[in-house]
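Question (not urgent): is this output format expected?
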Amino acid sequence: MSHEEEKPPFLGSWNNVYALVIGSLVCMIVLFYLFTQYFA
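Got this back:
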């Protein structure tokens, strides 16, 4: 198995890992926006 074909240690594929990271970033941005609107 070459270096390019390695699977990530979780979620089965790199596309799933990227989707999780992007989804968590979007959730944090929305939460920070709501937090700012509520307390500002």
